[in-house]
UniProtKB/TrEMBL annotation:
Signal peptide: 1-23
Pfam families hit by this protein: BBE, FAD_binding_4
Zinc-finger in keyword set: no
Keywords (A to Z) from UniProt: Oxidoreductase, Signal
Domain FAD-binding PCMH-type: start-end pairs: 157-344
Protein's UniProt name: FAD-binding PCMH-type domain-containing protein
Highest rank taxon of the organism: Eukaryota
Family: Belongs to the oxygen-dependent FAD-linked oxidoreductase family.
Length: 621
């Protein structure tokens, strides 16, 4: 981020704080009237200070919209300056990380000189580094939903604009900073984005015209030897602040005596306490201990009305349940989560490959190998395993197989039937098992870092035990469609074999009931060409929704997919994300955020909200 002498560009030139500013033309075609919200007032707390939506006519329909830069409703500069004072000077204009490679950056509030050769070199060197991106206050790890208007360039005369990023960002360092941001957005009708790491596949960590609240500085961790809160659990636990990431908490747990673990994601950059848990949260310990949300004991949070609350089995129990898998940025901003911990144990892991070094470019051999591998997936999870795998043309790559609490001999025995079937079918493979003194040692050695900076659409689907047992051939045919949905388009698969129902057969969270019989959650990744037009993007979205993911849905009876890693534009996302839990979640949303202070796409209660005119978040009236 480029730090400016003032938080406002349009204001800066007049104030003498920034002489390089050129005012951007601003216009609005909106009606001067506002949409009344009084009929929606209600819920637990008082929302009488909420600002009215702005009435807009679009394509013959009437909408109430969040305020956008350039409109009369946009807060005057003194209000932003006042907010900046309230948050201790931590409010900044959000400028995309690659702006330093351009002579100028043009945002909705004006134009500023940004070129910095050293900073640009840093951008080029680290663009694909996840941790580098995480440390940027408002950046997205994967950039499709930013509209790709300011990527790294070698030509500084190119154009750099804000795209669909937020306008301002609060790098919050205290809970009152977060409250101030929520209050400001509510009182001024501003779209609000909650961002910890930017680890987000489907655009929930960014939003045009928004105020971003960054929670990443919240890094406190408190290990508890015996939990004394409400409920029947009295074992070890840990309280994790909003900004702590998966790798960090596992490292800190490893330093405990004895070493401790929690259910976190496989990717080291995932933040534990926020959107991850609000989506359910799956990872290497999920087969043994359930989803991350199943292991939550308590939350500290801030509501849409700006109140600090505790949510657990005894206090605000409805909010407690909803925050456990009911959808990110939907009910409250999580300040911290308290979770069960488990003793780390010796484990076995392995890598497994079938690729063109083994089978050449024999398409039949490749799909036969993939079918055999997938046929045994029920067997793997029913024996307590977790498997992370990738499917590319002529490459089946599982890294790793994870056998927590098991020996190499036990892992080999579980996998032996699959390997024997591959051998019987004349399919060469590579199998490399290894023992580890703890799961953490396995995690560090076998799990790989992901790359940031890519531009792609993401879909996905859950295959349950019955799908694999009765229709494995149909699943493989669907995988073939994913690879080649059309002659000119290619996509690929990232799979996760786990079953939360193995270790946690009864859900205590808001997650879809089908997870209790899960076997394989697959992510479909459809790369989108850089510089794609709106028409091309619409075409790719149609292919993802109606060809790629439709093939997966047709091959499955689970009716489910994962909240955080699936197509938000799919039909019946309500049922696919939450199943029978959805009506209760929608009612809880009406109680805790009746006026839509929070928003992220395809979350409970957002059916009437959509982005119109590319950038405006609006509600159908």
């Amino acid at each position: 981020m480029v730090h400016l002498p003032s938080v406002g560009l349009a204001f800066a030139a007049a104030s003498g704080l920034l002489q390089t500013v050129t005012a951007a033309p601003q216009a609005s075609t909106d009606s001067t009237s506002t949409a009344s919200t009084t009929s929606f007032l209600g819920g637990l707390f008082d929302f009488l200070d909420v600002a009215n939506l702005t009435v807009t006519h679009h394509n013959g329909k009437l909408y109430g919209c969040k305020c956008s830069p350039g409109q009369l409703c946009w807060p005057q500069q003194w209000k932003w300056n006042q907010l900046n004072t309230t948050v201790g000077g931590n409010l900044k204009l959000h400028i995309p990380p690659a702006a330093s490679c351009y002579n100028t950056f043009t945002g909705p509030l004006g134009t500023v000189n940004t070129y910095d050769a050293a900073a640009c070199a840093d951008v080029h060197a680290n663009w694909e580094d996840e941790m580098w991106t995480v440390e940027k206050p408002g950046a997205a790890l994967w950039t499709y939903f930013t509209n790709e208007t300011c990527r790294p360039t070698l030509n500084p005369t190119d154009s750099c604009t804000l795209g669909y990023y937020g306008v301002y960002v609060i790098s919050a360092t205290t809970r009152n900073h977060i409250k101030a941001g929520i209050d400001f957005a509510r009182r001024n009708n501003i779209r609000l984005v909650i961002r910890n790491t930017g680890h987000d596949f489907i655009g929930r960590s960014t939003g045009a015209g928004s105020l971003i609240i960054n929670t990443h500085s919240f890094q406190d961790v408190n290990w508890i030897s015996s939990y004394a809160g409400p409920g029947s659990y009295s074992g070890p636990a840990v309280t994790i602040a909003a900004g702590v990431q998966g790798r960090s908490i596992l490292e800190q747990g490893h330093a405990q005596v004895p070493p401790k673990v929690i259910v976190t994601g496989e990717c080291p950059t995932v933040g534990v306490a926020g959107g991850f848990i609000q989506g359910g949260g799956h990872g290497p310990w999920t087969t043994l201990k359930g989803l991350s949300a199943d292991n939550v004991l308590a939350f500290e949070a801030i509501t849409a009305s700006g109140h600090f609350v505790t949510a657990n089995e005894a206090q605000n129990s409805d909010l407690f349940w909803a925050l456990k898998g009911g959808g990110p940025s939907a009910f409250a901003v999580i300040l911290s989560v308290t979770m069960k911990t488990f003793d780390d144990v010796s484990s076995a892991g392995a890598t497994f490959y079938v690729n063109n070094t083994h089978i050449g470019f024999d398409n039949d051999a490749y799909w036969n190998a993939t079918s055999i591998f997938h046929k045994w997936s029920n067997h793997f999870v029913d024996n307590g395993l977790y498997v992370y795998y990738e499917l590319f043309p002529f490459t089946l790559r599982a890294q790793p197989f994870v056998a927590i609490g098991k020996t190499v001999a036990e892992l080999n025995a579980i996998v032996a039937p699959m390997l024997a079937e591959l051998t019987a079918n004349g399919i060469p493979y590579e199998w490399n098992p290894k023992s580890f003194p703890t799961f953490f040692d396995l995690y560090v050695d076998l799990f790989e870092a992901e790359a940031a900076g890519g531009s792609a659409l993401t879909g996905g689907w859950l295959f349950d035990h019955n799908d694999v047992a009765t229709n494995n051939d149909g699943i493989i045919e669907a995988f073939k469609t994913v690879f080649s949905p059309r002659p000119d388009i290619f996509s690929f698969i990232v799979g996760h074999l786990f079953n939360p129902g193995y270790g946690a057969p009864v859900s205590n969270s808001a997650t879809h009931p089908s997870w209790r019989n899960a076997t394989d959650f697959v992510i479909t990744v459809l790369p989108v060409p850089l510089g794609a037009s709106k028409a091309v993007k619409a075409d790719y979205q149609n292919v993802l929704t109606n060809t790629i993911d439709q093939a997966l849905r047709d091959a499955s009876g689970s009716g489910a997919t994962y909240v955080n890693e699936a197509d938000p534009y799919q039909p019946n996302w309500q049922g696919h994300f939450w199943g029978s839990e959805y009506p209760r979640l929608k009612q809880i949303r009406k109680k805790w955020d009746p006026l839509g202070v929070f928003y992220s796409i395809a979350t409970p209660g957002t059916e009437d909200w959509e982005v119109i005119q590319d950038t405006r978040l609006c509600k159908k009236l």
